[in-house]
Amino acid sequence: MKKTLAIALALLMCFSLFAQGAGEATTEKKATKIGFVVIGSENDQGYTYNFMNGMNAAIDKLKADGYDVELSVKRDIGEDAGCVDANLALAAEGCEIIFNNSYGFEQYMQQAADEFPKVQFVSLTNCGSQVDGRDNTYNAFAAIYEGRYIAGVAAGMKLQQLIDEGKIKADQAVIGYVGAFSFAEVVSGMTAYYLGARSVCPSATMLVQFVGSWSDPTLEAEAAKALIDKGAVMISQHSDNTTPATTAQERGVFHTGYNNDMTGVAPKASLLSCRIDWTNYFYTFIANYINGVQNPSDYCGEMSRGEVVVTELNTAIAAPGTKEAMDKAAAAIADGSLHVFDTSKFTIKGAAPTNEAMYDSFAAVQGNATYDGYFHESSLQSAPYFVGQIDGITWLNAAF
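Given the sequence above, the corresponding structure tokens read:
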């Protein structure tokens, strides 16, 4: 299976390619069809928009490097049996690699993988395919919690500016967070964001409203409004659309986004966004496949390789010194002097956090991630597994 010595040796070669690029195309031309199953469309200007930008950039780069590739996309696919049909249809079309971009797609993708064992199926933002016993399924994610922390620093700088200028009191530095679901992917990101904000604005607190959907612009706007009504002066999100940003602007508060630069739709509110840049992963996975190089069953993108990105700061509204504070934090993360989930920086129910209180019991890979003074996110598997409910963050509801 995937964990044999032969595969391990192949992975060493593959990781080298991820670090250095996939190399040049093979001299023999071969048309390779690539399939992509996506939960939304580019029109969301968020989640699927970001994925499609990465895929299109990768396809363009592959063609420029001499690879003969074609892309076929199934859009607006639900997390249900229709996902099986979409994967089967792409496989029947002759797609040799099929990527799936939503957490809830994995179980349906795996069903299709059983029907087409020679097709490579990749589940993005997921974790189960690396341990499912199939040789043709893969996972990928990125250390987005680091980007979230940096975005949180920008938010915290703005909150502290509002305090220093007397526009709000210290206990009014409230962040409102629009979350999709109350499980690890969202909890990890929102906690990292809050810790980044609190590192420069110690009085910051956060309220979280879960909407029970990855992509529902109306629910996301309603959640943002409810959070503002409860006192939030900064809105952030782990949801797919721009409506939290536009709602923040309409209500006269500030915002940081996800997946796409949202300053264009909310220039008076949105400071910046963080996102995963999937271009390198798509390019390298496809090129490796064509060149006969085994891809890793689980891959985690890194900020150091440009796979975790913070968009350009909106300096028209950002607090003075924000860029410098962000750069300082990023440099500290890079050199290992700052760990996002430093367990000396937060408590859970007033006590020092334990691995049991932070580690997701439903993670595909179980283990101890708490040692050396911090929680090691995305080290045992690429997908996040931090689920601790830390002090300072109040969940208004839950949605699993």
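The first strand starts at residue 32 and ends at 37. Try to locate this feature in the token string yourself.
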